[in-house]
Design brief:
The protein is an alpha/beta fold and 196 residues long. The protein folds into 2 domains: 7-160, 3-Layer(aba) Sandwich (Rossmann fold); 162-196. It contains 8 helices and 6 strands. The strands form 2 sheets. The protein has a 4-stranded parallel β-sheet with strand order 2-4-5-6. Strands 1-3 form a two-stranded parallel sheet. Helix 3 crosses helix 5 (103-115). Residues 46-62 and 66-87 have low confidence and may be disordered.
């Protein structure tokens, strides 16, 4: 889950929807190299576990562009505290919640997840979400969002209901299976005609 919301808000929402694990903020993501970011994400379910597949299809890592991109925190870091915190950041594994992130952080996180083999879905509604929506494997914009977000996305929710995403995934899988069956039928019929 990627959000611009405060860390405590992000953790509470994550807990409500069953997303648990380590949390990183946008400031912490800024301090990480691409390799360190990938290391923090490498234990996220789906990339390296064959049993985490859903119905034989790739697990989807979801991210949301909801919330503010404001980076101001009520806590200020001292320089010595920042160095110690940096050591802890580099050792985090299985990060599943990103809070207080800006547009450039969303973009980096999505790219890191893709390099690790994840299929990434991104939902967003603002201009700041457009680069991440475009980069994600599946960009989902809400209908009430900006024109830029809708243009950058692959899928637009006209009624702003996220329940439609699961329905679209199910429909897409059904269409994919039907196309496979049609191709097999055509190939088997045409192969028999070639032999005669």
């Amino acid at each position: 889950m990627i959000t611009g919301d405060h860390v405590d808000t992000a953790r509470a929402i994550g807990k409500m929807i069953g997303i648990t694990g380590e949390t990183l903020t946008g400031r912490e993501v800024e301090r990480l190299s691409d390799a360190e970011l990938e290391k923090a994400l490498e234990h996220v379910r789906g990339a390296d576990q064959s049993d985490s597949r859903v119905d034989g299809n790739a697990e989807i890592s979801a991210s949301t562009g909801a919330g503010s991109d404001n980076q101001s925190d009520s806590n200020s870091d001292s320089s010595s505290g920042a160095d110690a915190a940096m050591d802890d950041i580099g050792n985090k594994r299985g990060v599943t919640i990103f809070a207080r992130v800006a547009s450039e952080h969303k973009y980096r996180i999505i790219q890191a997840l893709q390099r690790l083999g994840h299929t990434v879905a991104m939902t967003g509604d603002g201009v700041n979400d457009a680069p991440a929506l475009h980069t994600a494997d599946i960009g989902v914009a809400v209908g009430s969002g900006t024109d830029v977000a809708r243009e950058a996305s692959d899928f637009v929710l006209l009624n702003d209901s996220f329940a439609n995403i699961t329905g679209a995934i199910e429909e897409g899988r059904g269409i994919y299976e039907n196309i496979q069956k049609s191709i097999m039928l055509l190939l088997s019929g045409n192969f028999g005609e070639v032999l005669i």
